[in-house]
Amino acid sequence: MKETAAERDEEDIAAERLTAVLAAVEARDAAALDVLLDPLHAADIADLLEQISPSERADLLALWHGGIDGDVLSEIDESIREQVIESLPDEVVAEAVRELDTDDVVDILEDLDEPAQEKILDALEDADRVAVEQALAYPEYSAGRLMQREVVVAPEHWKVGEAIDFLRGAEWLPDQFYHVILTDPRMKPVGYVTLGRILSAARETPLKEIVEDSFRTVKATDEEANVAYIFNQYHLISCPVVDENGRLVGVITIDDAMNVLDEEHEEDMLRLAGVGDESSISDGPVATARQRLPWLVVNLFTASLSALVIGQFEATIAQIVVLAALMPIVASTGGIAGTQSLAVAVRALATRDLTRSNAARVVRRELFAGILNGVGLAAILGLAGTLIFGDYHIGVVLGMAMIVNQIVAALGGVVVPLTLERFGLDPALASGTFVTTLTDVMGFFAFLGLATVILL
Amino acid sequence: MKETAAERDEEDIAAERLTAVLAAVEARDAAALDVLLDPLHAADIADLLEQISPSERADLLALWHGGIDGDVLSEIDESIREQVIESLPDEVVAEAVRELDTDDVVDILEDLDEPAQEKILDALEDADRVAVEQALAYPEYSAGRLMQREVVVAPEHWKVGEAIDFLRGAEWLPDQFYHVILTDPRMKPVGYVTLGRILSAARETPLKEIVEDSFRTVKATDEEANVAYIFNQYHLISCPVVDENGRLVGVITIDDAMNVLDEEHEEDMLRLAGVGDESSISDGPVATARQRLPWLVVNLFTASLSALVIGQFEATIAQIVVLAALMPIVASTGGIAGTQSLAVAVRALATRDLTRSNAARVVRRELFAGILNGVGLAAILGLAGTLIFGDYHIGVVLGMAMIVNQIVAALGGVVVPLTLERFGLDPALASGTFVTTLTDVMGFFAFLGLATVILL
After folding, report:
1. What angle do CA B205, B208, B214 make, to 5 degrees?
2. What pLDDT, on the 0 to 100 scale, is given for residue A159?
């Protein structure tokens, strides 16, 4: 994303505001904090809390805890939410969560430890607590956790006029709703009508005649990633959620689906790079180091494979020491090619553009692309090697090794994630480590092996 | 994203359908194709067209061109859209684009070559053509290209009853709209009201009293990435678009913003891996190879830097050949650490969680995390080296080089994207190549340099 001038201006304003906020905290000036923070959207207050250090955050909250409401708690990143909730007086937390919809309370609760969860559940009114506990009974990352239980329904045989009269007479309607869901007598959803169409149709029009083509339902036990995919694929605005008997239990709206889509992307990007997907820019150095260490240790072992391979050719290197200098070129260019192929494959798997139906064609495509680039790079590197060392044998070794490793890289980049997926694992999960290990090992083996055969 | 059983079932069904479709194409059985494809959503037909090879696609379109409507053209990936449009008879294209909203026509047009653009513009009715040409006058990737021009407005002084009467009496309303936008006499938007609230409020309530807090506008010249950010940050459903004088010119709805967000993610992921962001799973091998070659060639040169560094230590390697086998361990573990740090930083820049306000804190955080993991990995590797070679000097060299390179990696992963952004470039743009070059060069230099000093 390239920055625009407007965006830079916005960033200047935000940076100045942050400086002013920290100055007010330092001066223990609660009134100045009010002036600075009150006009902000909850999402911007949450961002500001995420951008400062833990000790600055603690000072700010001690001074300004009255300003933290349910919306801010809802917006705040889960990595610091626990710290924020623990630092707030119980009555502030209680008031904050009471004003939230139950789906937002669920979202806050699921990342907290038991004691913090209890603190919030105790603060809720009885009906809300039951609703929240029912939602928590659904599996983590399921549609049941994501949905709001407040739905607007109409019997399928109603006419537009009846729906309008019902809506205008309703004592309470959800804050955000875009459709009236039609249900049969057993509460199974059979279609939905947009509010715009209800407003513009004649009173005697049966609702059934103006339902949207886009109607579909999801099960409460469906994974949220699946739900986000359906919203994005079919351009849904809201989607009814049904239980195992097909009865309506809630509705998911597009803003929640957009949020899930965004988190799925984050997960893909971080996992591809071998970082725990719960990592955040607000984490301290120790948490950061701990999240990253596991794959670094794995890499320590996989990198030792390269060392073992090279060790087999010590006699060759001892005779022609320049090989040691040249060997990383082939390995590293293979690593880049593998990463390229991998990124395209992981993305295509996430958007379901790469499926078992076209996997064979894509693998073939990667093979040919690998051969083409391998030959191209071999020509450049081979020529350079020949000219620099005045010996075409070195050029031939470099070029041939490059072709082999480009093919391995292109194939590895697509076969590794496909294999992970076939075994029910996340295709992004540290595929980067696997693929670069593959290209390193093959790069060194091909280069030193060919050198041993051709140059000695 | 982990696959569920339900998702696998869906994939089985899709795979069987694809097989049946290809069989029908092979048998030139247009009736069978109709039975298979007619019930599908346009997005699923588009996916199917993307998953088959170019020659299968050409055969399918020749047999079934009547089935391609505006929605399918709209859904289809831009990488194959040109092929599809060119293979369709002019009258099919004309009919398809005439049924689309103007914003969808703009979306199709902007990726086409001049002759294909003309073909479509000629097919439009006069009013639509003017609207499309006006939209194309806005910069590429701007809000003006993304917006629909059909808006539902009400004067700011209206009451709910007037709005209801106006909506019920309107000859035409957009297919999808969620708000009535209030404007002042100069057509400047001053707020909006959801349809749900209009339906549930008393007729005499002034619209001004039930406007949404979330109201904000974007400029027609704002970048679409900025618009997507605003939708995601502030949970918008729709957002009015204004011209340079603040007058209402259109509205953007969340489904379009979600689409942009998705494309931005794709761009980040592919650019980070050094792949052109226009690459797609439908591309042929030649197009694929061409998209990837540029950064591979760049890497060929940057990898030569590593070779030059190693070349300086040929005398050391000649004396202790095992160093050649060990040196990739330090470089490769640094590459992984750099990629981890980079992925977190690029993601945080995209979500604006990493800004100049907290850049210094994040760089410090990375430094400490790098030191911690460097020490941890140095302990493991140093111990292993000492035990395997029975000489603690080798362990010390491995450990010290590891610490140095982990610090370089952690810092490089955050400083490289921050620097690219400071210069107004996309922070994801091939940062991967820069960072791994840095960790390779420093890894080899630190290891061989320390070995020369300590072991010789």
Report:
1. 125
2. 97
Strand pairing category for B218-219 and B238-242: parallel
Using alpha carbons, list the distances in angstroms from residue B426 to A2, A339, B268, B429: 5, 19, 9, 5
Task: Using the structure block, give the residue that is written with the tokens 């351009």.
Answer: A235
Residues 6+ apart with CB under 8 A from A430: A271, A272, A274, A295, A298
With beta carbons under 8 A apart, name residues in chain A contacting B251.
Answer: none
B357 contacts A19? CB cut-off 8 A: yes
Cα gap B87→A343, rounded to integer Å: 31
Instruction: Determine the 3-state secondary structure of B238 from DSSP.
Output: strand
Sign of CA dihedral B153, B156, B157, B163: positive
| CATH code assigned to A14-137 | 1.25.60.10
Nearest chain B CA: its distance from A452 CA (Å)? 15
Name the pairing type of β-strands B218-219 and B153-155: unpaired
Beta bridge partners of A181: A153, A192
**For domain B285-455, is the CATH number 1.10.357.20?**
yes
Rounded average pLDDT over B188-212 = 94
Measure the CA angle with vertex A159, ends A157 and A163; round to 5°: 105
CATH code for the domain defined by A153-272? 3.10.580.10
| Residue B3 pLDDT > 60 | no
Rounded Cα distance between B201 and B203, Å, is: 6
- The CA distance from B427 to B171, in Å, is 49
Q: What whole-number distance in Å separates Cα of residue B193 and Cα of residue B200?
A: 12
Q: Which residues contact B10 (CB under 8 A, 6 or more apart)?
A: none
Phi/psi-derived region of residue A143, left when phi > 0, alpha when psi is between -120 and 50, beta in every other case: alpha
Q: Is A148 exposed, middle or buried (0-12, 13-18, 19+ CB in 10 A)?
A: buried
* B260-306 per-position pLDDT tens digit: 999 888 888 888 888 877 778 888 899 899 999 999 999 999 999 99
All residues of chain A having their beta carbon less than 8 Å from the beta carbon of residue B296 are: 333, 336-337, 340, 373, 377
Domain ranges of chain B: 15-137, 153-272, 285-455
A257 neighbourhood in chain B, CB within 8 Å: 258
**Is 3.40.50.300 the CATH number for B15-137?**
no
DSSP state of B275: -
